[in-house]
Amino acid sequence: MVDNAPFLTQQHAGLTIEGYSRAAVQSYWRIPELRIGFDLGAQPWDFMGTPTWMVTHTHLDHVSALPVYVARRRMMKMEPPTIYVPEEAMEDVRRLLLIMQRLDRGRMICQLHGVKPQQEIELSREHVITAFATSHTIPSLGYLVWERRNKLKEEYFGLPGEKIRDLRLSGVPVTREVRSPILAYTGDTSPAGLDNFPPVYQAKVLITELSFIRPSHRRERIHKFGHMHLDDMIERADRFQNELIICAHFSTRYHPNEVRRIVEAKLPACLRERVKVWL
Ligand SMILES: [Zn+2]
Ligand SMILES: [Zn+2]
């Protein structure tokens, strides 16, 4: 095994969250159980086996390892990966891969897809993703994973099993799809990115950025550059229904101890027990 990029790991509700994120350095996450990753700011050697990646935006700290990852999969004789990027970036990303192909003299083979806000991406029978618009300085998307189950429609409750089976065999749709949001990843965004897509606040696990924490940082400026401040989170304390809130993408001007100290001191109790400072 090669230890080329750091990451932390946490388990929650049957999911393993692995990742690392510091502003302007690198962001990358993956959920092995869902076989997906978010952002490619670097690519730990270990993450190569994850076949599908959703890129939130094309700032270097979120995309610079894309050619490395695509080339590595081919070198290791793995299936070409599937990569989703905001549709505005799609053509340039395709060209970037072609240029790297020329420079590196190795074919860059992947399924590249442009994504629009509100577009759905089918992952499997049980899981589907909705892309949602976030608010940053370049086109950007967040991604929310739904778990979907087929439940018997209420009008058939109490009917004997063989009756339901007969109905189903005769082509009557006896079930309806029920979705629950299990994980949301916002990428870089000002608070509008969360506010404009309420399921983000309901997902069991929320991975969000919290680039700024010091009281002296001016919030209008932070929002203008498409980021969040700790006070934005505190203002919205009663909206978060998430079981676990992972805060990451802290600015490099903070020492990890300063982040932990300020977050611990300022978060209301209802959030403190669910917030995980990812450092
Ligand atoms: Zn970033
Ligand atoms: Zn960014």
Features:
single chain, 279 residues, alpha/beta, 7-stranded mixed sheet, 10 helices, 14 strands, 27% helix, globular, binds zinc ion
Biggest sheet overview: 7 strands, mixed
Structural class: alpha/beta
Model regions low in confidence, pLDDT < 50 over at least 5 residues = none
Principal-axis shape equals globular
Oligomer: single chain
Can you give the mean pLDDT?
Answer: 97
What sequence of helices (H) and strands (E) makes up the elements?
Answer: EEEEEHHEHEEEEHEHHEHHEHHE
What share of the residues lie within helices?
A: 25-40%
Strand content: 25-35%
Number of helices: 10
- Ligand catalogue: zinc ion
Number of strands: 14
**What is the radius of gyration?**
21 Å
Q: Cα distance, first to last residue?
A: 23 Å
Strand order of the largest sheet: 1-2-3-4-5-6-7
Task: Please give a structural write-up.
The chain has 279 residues and is α/β, with parallel strands linked by helices. It has helices spanning 60-63, 66-75, 87-104, 161-169, 192-195, 199-202, 219-224, 230-235, 256-266, 269-272, and strands at residues 8-12, 15-22, 26-31, 36-40, 52-54, 82-86, 111-115, 120-122, 127-133, 141-152, 175-185, 205-209, 244-248, 275-277. The strands form 2 sheets. It has a 7-stranded mixed sheet. Strand 6 (82-86), helix 3 and strand 7 form a beta-alpha-beta unit.
